[in-house]
Fold Peptide ABC transporter substrate-binding protein.
Amino acid sequence: MNKLRAAAAIAGATALAVSASACGAGNNSDDEGSSSGGGSIVVGTTDKVVSIDPAASYDNGSLMVQTQVYQYLLNFPEGETEPQPDAAEKCEFDTPTTYTCTIKDGLTFANGNPLTAKSVAFSFQRIVDIEDPNGPASLLVNMAGVEAKDDKTVVFTLKTPNDQTFPQVLVTSAGPIVDEQTYPADKALSDDEAVEAQGFSGPYTIGKYEKGQLAEFKANDDYDGAYNDPQIDTVTLKTYADSNNLKLDIEKKNIDVAWRSLTPTDIESLDGTDGVTVHKGAGGELRYIVFNLKTMPGSDDAQKLAIRKAVASSLDRDAISEQVYKGTYVPAYSPIPEGLPGATEAFKDLYGEKPDKAAAEKFLSDAGVKTPVTIALQYNPDHYGGSSDQEYNEVKRQLEDTGLFTVDLQSAEWTTYNAERVKDSYPVYQLGWFPDFPDADNYVTPFYDKGNFIGNHYEDPQMTALLAAERTEPDKAKREEILGQVQQLAAEQISTLPLLTGAQVAVATDDVKGVENTLDAAFKFRLTSLSK
C-alpha cells in the first residue's frame, strides 16, 4: 500500500521571489535582551501530539507545537497569505528547476549550535529519507534534491520546471528546520529526545514536557524570524482527554485559552459566559467520509462506485449541520471550501442537496447490488472534536433510514485510529483536513493525486494530469477552470465524500489579547500573537 501523502502545493502564484523587504513582522535587529513581555498563560486543547520531530508527524496537534519552536525558511506572519522570510533572507528561482534560499547570518539553535544552510538541507533530506508513514514526505514529492552550496546558500532542485508552488511547501509541515548535530538522519527522535536535544530556533523553546499532558513553552530571546517577538514569557499547553473538562476549565477561568476542540453546544454556552470571549476566524476545516477502494463493500469496481453514489444520495448535510453542530459547521458540496477561488458545488449538482432515496436505490439496482448493503464505518471520537460520535451516529441513522444500508459503526482513539487506517483496516471511515496553506490546491492534491496521503487506493491518470495542470497554471481564470474539472471528476468518482466545513474557534478569558490575530487563513496558531 502506498502510504505517501501527495504533494501539497499552491498554483498560480505570481511572485517567484520572496525577499526580506517583504517581511511584515519579526524581530527588530536593534532589540537587546529579553524580547518577551513577561507573565504566563495556559492554553488548553484536546489535540494530541503525534511527534515533535517534523519527520514523523503531519497532524494538527504536532503542528501546534512545531509552529512555536521551529523556524522555517519562509512563514506566514499575522494576516499574511503569501510566505515571508523567516530563517531566510530571501528565496528565489534561479532557473526553472532551481530554487535558492539565502540564510540569515548568526542564527542558532537553543542548544547553541549554528543554524546554517547545511541544517536546512539536512532537514528536508531526512524527511524524504525517513519517509515515516505519519510524516510529511509526500509534501516534497516535487523536490528532486537539496544541497547546501555553502553555510548561507541552499539550493532545491525541482522535478517539474516552472513550478510556482514550491514556496508554499516550505511553510508546511515539511518545513521546520532541525539541528543536524542532534537529529539523526535515518530515524525520528522521540518527543523526550527532541526536548533534550533543544534543536529549536523558533520564538519559543520547550521546557517541561509530558507527552499527552502538557508542553511548557519558554520565550526564545535569540529568535530572529517572521513572527512577532513573544509577548509572554511562559505558555503552558495543557492537553485534555475530552472536551468536557476543557469547557469547564475555560468557563471557570482555570485556563486562559481553549483552542481545539470544544463542542458546538459548549461554544454556544460559553458565548454568554461572563469573563470569556468566543473568537472565530477564517474557515477551511473540512470533514469527509473516505472510502477504501480496496476493502469497501461491492464485488467489483462498478458495484463499489454504485454504493458510493448511493451513500452520496442518502445524506442530509443540513441536518448534521444544525442538529449536531448548531451551524458552526455548514454543508460542504466540494472538496474545496466555498469562498476559495475555483470552488464549485459539484456534489450538490450530481447528487442533490437533500436525500434522494429513489436515486440511491437506482444506483444500486443498476449495478446489481443486493440490499441492504452492510457498511463497516469507523470514526474517531477525540481528534476531530467531541461531537464526532453524534455526527456519525446521525450518518448511521440517515443511511439506515433509507432501508438500503446496515451500518456497523465503530470508533477508536486517535493513536490507534491513525495507525489502523493506513493498514486497510477501515473500509469506510471519517477524516478531517486542516489546510497546510490557504489555497484551493491544498484541498485536492493531498486527496486525489498519485500517492495521496489517505492510502485509500485511489489513483486516476486523468485526475493526476488535471492536478499537475492547475498547480503550474499562472493564469487565474484558466486555473479556476481546471479546478472546476478536478471537482467534477472528484464528484463523479467519490473516493472521498465531503460533508461539512467549519470555522476556527478559540475561547479566551477577557484579559487575553491577540487571539483574533492568529485565527487567520494561514491556519497556524501563533503563541506570539497572545498577550495578557
